[in-house]
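We store amino acids, C-alpha cells; thus:
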Amino acid sequence: MPRMLDVSDDVRAEIGDEEADRLLAGDHAPGSYDCTSCRTPGDTDREHTSTVLFVGDETAVLAFAHAGCLPSQVVRVSDEQLQGAVRQAGALQEPDRAPTVPGPSAGDSGVRKAAPEQAVLGVTSGLVLISGELHAAIVVEPTSAIARPGSTGPGDEFLPLLVEQGFQLVTDLNQAPPVLHGWSVLLAMGQLHAVLQPGAGGGAPVAWWQAHRPLQATDGWRTAANKNQQVLMFAAPVGLIGRQPREDLLRGALDRAAANGVLVGAALPLAGI
C-alpha cells in the first residue's frame, strides 16, 4: 500500500529516483515513526509525512516528520552530529543510495569555531517570558569583535551582518521578533545541535553555528519549542550578555541590551531529528 509520503525534489536529487520511488511505494518507509520535530508518533499510512534527509560529510540519514511540523527537505550537518543522533534513535535509516556531497536552561552553552579565521560564538539557551507566554530562546554572543569579511578595520560588524541577513533590531522584549524564513534551529533527539541558514543560491540549508558538543535542553525548553514550532534567537556584541547562571539574570541582560539598541533577534522555525 502506498505511503502518504512527501519526497521533495531536493531529497529525490540526493537519494536518486529509484530509492525515492521505493519510498513512495511503501517498500522502505516505516508504517509508524517518531516525528523528527515534535517527537510524537506518526503513521505514514494515515497522515501526510515528510521525508527529511540529514546529510553529513560521508553519510546520510533519512528521518520522517509530520507534514505539518516540517516540509520535506535536505539538511546538511556534521558527521559527528549525524552519528550521535543515530546512536540514540532507532527510527532513522540510511538510504540505499548514500548521497555524494563535498569532502537549556540558562547557563548551558556551546561554542563553535568553523575555521581558524572565524570567531568563536557562544550560545546560551533559556526560557523567555513574552506577553505571558514562555518561549524557547537561544542567545548568541561572540567572544571577540566580528569583522566584515575582507575588512582589516577594528570595528565590530556582528549586528550589521545579522541585520543584512534579515534579523531585526529588538528594542522591547514585550513582543516576540518576527519569523525569519529560511533560517532554522536544528534539534536532534532533544539536543540543540545547530543554527541553519539558507544555502547559497537557494540550496539546502547549511550550519551558521554548530555546537562543539550538542547542548542539553530542559523539558520546559523543549515543550515551549515544540508548542510554538520555533525558537527565538537573540544576538548581541561581545561582552553585552555574558553567561548568566539564571534565567532571570539572562532576561535582565537582554532587557539592558535592548534598551541600549544593541540586540537583534528573529524567530527561527524548528528542524530536527
User: Anything to note?
Assistant: Residues 87-117 have pLDDT under 50 and may be disordered.
